[in-house]
Amino acid sequence: MVLNLENVGKMKINEFLGSTLECQCGKPHSVNIDKIIVENGAVNKVPGILQEMGRKNALVVADSHTFEVAGKKVVELLTASNIKHKVYVYQSEGHLVPDEQAVGKLVLQVEKDTDVIVTVGSGSLNDLVKFVSWLIKVPSLVVATAPSMDGYASDTSALIIDNLKTSVTSDYPKIIIGDVDILKQAPMTMILAGLGDIIGKYSALNDWLISEIVNDEYHCSVTAKISSDAIEKCVTNIEGIKKREDKAIKDLMEGLVRTGIAMSFVGNSRPASGCEHHISHFWEMAFLFAGKEALLHGTKVGMSSVITAKLYELLPETKVDFDKAVSVARAFDEKAWREKVIAMYGKAAPGILKLSEKDGRNSIEKRIARISKIKENYDAIMNIAKAAPSAARVRALMEEAGAPVRPKEVGIDDATALNGVIMAKEVRPRYSMLNLLSDLAILEELAKKASDYVK
Predict the structure, then answer these.
(1) What is the pLDDT of residues 57-69, one digit of tens each?
(2) Cβ pair 305, 283 in contact under 8 A
(3) pLDDT at position 277, please?
(4) What is the pLDDT of residues 70-101, one digit of tens each?
(5) Measured between alpha carbons, how far is 432 from 226 in angstroms, rounded to an integer?
(6) Considering the chain, what is the average pLDDT of its residues?
(7) pLDDT band at 282 (very low <50, low <70, confident <90, very high)
(8) Phi and psi of 7, rounded to 5°?
(9) Cα distance between residue 178 and residue 143, in whole Å
(10) CA gap 354, 351 in Å, rounded
C-alpha cells in the first residue's frame, strides 16, 4: 500500500507499524514499534506481552508518583505471572529532571540478565528509558500514566545535557500501552498539557511549510496530515476531554502517539515541533537555572502556541523592508550576539555557542540568500500565514479547556516570556517563524506585540 492524502486518515494506529510503507512523497516510512494498545484495562496485558516477547528479566522503572498510580499494579501482575523483575523508583518530590545524573542512576540499575525495561510513566521517565534502552541495547515497553506529551512513539529523547535542553537519539519502546482507566485519572493539568502539546502542532506544521520554501527542506504532506488529523480530532471534543470521557481520552492519547509516529516517519520532529516548542524549551531552562519547579512540557507549549499564532497573524499586517533586512544582515555583530546568548542562556550558553559554530547559523551570506528567497516567495509565505489559525482561535481553545494562556499564570514573568520569543530561535538549528522574522529584521518588534497579547 502507498500512503497518500486519501487513505492516511482512515488508517488504524497499528496499521502504521510492522513494515516499511511507501508514500506519495517518494520516501519510504517506517517505525520500529511492534504494537500500540490504547483501551480500558490495557495494563493487564503486560505479563502476556512480555511472555510473547520472550523476556524473562524485567527492570520496572517509575518515579514516586507513577509507582503509586500504576507501578504497583504492574509489579503485582508480574509477580502473579512469575516473571522475574527488579523495581527502580526515582525518588523525587517535584518533576524528575532528565539530566546526566538521572541517566547514570538508571544505567546502574541494569543487571547483567536484564532483558527488558518496563517504563511506568510519561514525559521524563519515557525519555530516560528510551535513551538508556538505546544505549545498552535492551528493548523497552511503556505503560503510560498520562496523555501528557507526544514523545511515546518518538526515537529521540529530550534530555538536559550540560544544562542545555537537547534532543538525542534513543530507541522506540517496542510496545506502547495506554490504559484508558489509568489515563483518565491523571491530574487534569497533565491531560491539559497533552492537549497543549497537540495544539502546538498548528504552528509546527506551518513552520515546516515555511522552511520548505525558504530552505528547500524536505516536506511530506501525508505525514503532516497525520498530525493535522490528530489536532482536529482532539480540539473538536474538548468538552469530552474536560469530562475525562473514555473516548476523548483515548483519542487524545492516540493523537499524541500518532504525531510521534509522524515524527519517526520523517526522521525528525517537524510534524510535531516548531518554534512553540523552542520557546517552551527556553522557559524550561530559565526555570531550571532559577531553581524553580519545572512546568509540564505541554503546558508551556500550549501557552507559546498562542504567542506563535499571534506572530503568524502579525506578519501579513507588517510592512517588510527587504533592503533594511539585508543591511541588518550585513551589519551582524558576532561578538554582541555571543554576549547576548551568554546573558540569556547562562549555563546553557556554551552548548548554544558550540552548536552555532557547527551549523553556521550566523553566516551572513546564508542569511542574505534566505532573505532573497523570502522576497521571491513572499506571496506563498503570506498565504501560509493567513491560513494559520488566528491567535484568538488558539487562545479560545486553551481557555475552553481551562488551560493557562498567560505565562504569568504559571510564574513566567513578562521579561522571561518576551526573551523566550526573541531568543528561542537559538535553541535548535531548525528554521521557524522566529528565524524568518529575524531574517526580516522584525522579530523584536513582533515579539513585543505577541507577548503583550498574552499579558
Answers:
(1) 999 999 999 999 9
(2) no
(3) 95
(4) 999 999 999 999 999 999 999 977 788 899 99
(5) 20
(6) 95
(7) very high
(8) -100, -20
(9) 6
(10) 5
| pLDDT(355) > 90 | no
Please give the C-alpha separations between residue 106 and each of 61, 85, 166, 177, in angstroms, as whole numbers.
Answer: 8, 15, 19, 21
- Using CB atoms within 10 A of its CB, is residue 362 exposed (0-12), middle (13-18) or buried (19+)? middle
* 145's grid cell: 500514566
Taking the CA of residue 39 as centre, how many other CA atoms within 13 Å lie in the half-sphere pointing to its CB?
A: 9
- What's phi and psi for 25, nearest 5 deg? -75, -15
Hey, which residues does 166 pair with through a beta bridge? 159
Q: 3-class SS at 36?
A: strand
For residue 165, give the C-alpha cell.
Answer: 535542553
Strand pairing class (57-63; 22-23): unpaired
Residue 294 has pLDDT above 80, yes or no: yes
The ranges assigned to domains in the chain are 2-186, 195-219+270-453
The Cβ of residue 46 has, within 10 Å, a number of other Cβ atoms equal to: 26
**Is the per-residue pLDDT at 171 higher than 90?**
yes
Instruction: Single out the residue of 49, 270, 120 nearest to residue 128, CA to CA.
Output: 120
Separation of alpha carbons 192 and 393, rounded Å: 17
User: What single-letter DSSP state applies at residue 16?
Assistant: G
Encode pLDDT of 395-450 as tens digits. Answer: 999 999 999 999 999 999 999 999 999 999 999 889 999 999 999 999 999 999 99
Which CATH number is 2-186 given?
3.40.50.1970
Q: What mean pLDDT comes out for the span 204-226?
A: 98
The CATH code of the domain at 195-219+270-453 is 1.20.1090
Residue 234 is placed in which grid cell?
A: 482532539
Question: Which H or E element spans position 103?
Answer: helix 100-107
Angle (nearest 5°) at CA 384 between 379 and 390: 125
| Rounded (10°) CA dihedral 400, 403, 405, 407 | 170
Strand partners, 60: 87, 118
